[in-house]
Amino acid sequence: MRFRILLTAVVSVLFSSSLYAADAEGNYAIWGMGNASCHSYNKAREKDGTDEFRYYIMGYLTAYNVHQSETYSISNLQEMPDIMAWFDDFCTNNAVHSFESALANFISEHYEDRKKTLRQKNPYGR
Question: What keywords would UniProt list here (predicted)?
């Protein structure tokens, strides 16, 4: 239940006014865990406390899937442990980046391999 509430809040915040809610210069407010640094993520990971980051990731990626055309799933067939491993690697190597920057990099890296439709055939035979 907590996840649904958090997911709804993240989706609402990210996309409440329009698809591209940046100002004329491309700036936008970053809410929640996206405003934290990768260093903060690394510290939380050391203490096995990444739940808030994981929930934020799920909400962010869900919102992206909802609002990006031809995108059923930006993460394609990856499951949460694989996605979290990607963030572990990124944040280990980019501790001064914001967590929102990590999310933007995840999307950029995975865009070409995204699952475009629910019925898209799996190229890996699963």
Answer: Signal
